[in-house]
Amino acid sequence: MEILDLVGNTPLLSLERLTGPQPVKILAKAEFANPSGSVKDRAAKAMILDGFARGLIAPGTTLIDATSGNTGIAYSMIGAALGITVRVFLPANASRERKALIRAYGAAITETDPLESSDGAYEAARAEYASDPGRYFYPDQYNNPVNPRAHYETTAREILEQTGGAVTHFLCGMGTSGTFMGTSRRLKEADGRVKCVAVQPDSPLHGIEGTKHMASTIRPGIYDRSLIDSEILVSTDEAYAVARRVASSCGILCGVSSGGNVAAALKLSRALPRGSVIVTVLGDTGARYLTDGLLGW
């Protein structure tokens, strides 16, 4: 077995210790169980293997892409496992833990203007690739259809199997939007009654790392508005507070975007009929945010 064989097939966890017994069930995909610790392992693996299949990666090729952190960690892990040089473009205000993890796998970081957020990293990566395309493999996670396809083929299939097809609502935030788009598309194909709910930060100036406020940012090319049935807004304070509650009540140390997802699921659950089943995503581990004050330090 190789490290890439461990990507996917993550557990679906009950959050009943957080919610208490209630007529609506909230379940969460434990994506921090992936080998580099986040949901981004799925898309990174798929995009890199697609690059090999299309002859875009050769000896001496450097993988470059923009990231808010987790995809960069996933690229770095897979690059180390497959012998690929990796360089990621990352906002300078990304958490210390994320930068340390990328460097631990032997990858290089080019830090970009924190005021430009992930958009600045995206523009810098595009410019670098355009300067010497023969030198680089540029997956371009924001526009690569392999990103949502990875979730169509794996994440959604797992949710259908793990719930026995009982899922009624799928809910998560969006960065590249790959997890939401790919998972939603397949769930809707399996059962047209499934509702897919997008979680949005309540402000362009938010601190839910890895999540985009779509109205004020460069929209990814893979974003498909038609798959969104409704949206729920979550504040940064709510996301941090619920992440802390999930840790203290369930023993699950999840990240800030995960806290936002669960906060939105709690709001949604209050408006649903008895017997509804909400599935959301715990995208990464809270260990990546301790220096950002996740635990109130």
Features:
297 residues; alpha/beta; Rossmann fold; 2 domains; six-stranded mixed β-sheet; four-stranded parallel β-sheet; 9 helices; globular
Taken as a percent bin, the fraction of beta residues is 15-25%
**How is the CATH topology of the largest domain named?**
Rossmann fold
Report the uncertain regions: none
Report the C-alpha radius of gyration, rounded: 18 Å
Give the tally of β-strands: 10
The shape is globular
What percent of residues adopt helix (DSSP H or I)? Answer: 25-40%
Structural class, by secondary structure, is alpha/beta
Average pLDDT confidence is 94
Number of domains: 2
> Reading side by side through the largest sheet, how are the strands ordered?
1-2-10-7-8-9
So what's the CATH class of the largest domain?
A: Alpha Beta
Annotated CATH architecture of the largest domain: 3-Layer(aba) Sandwich
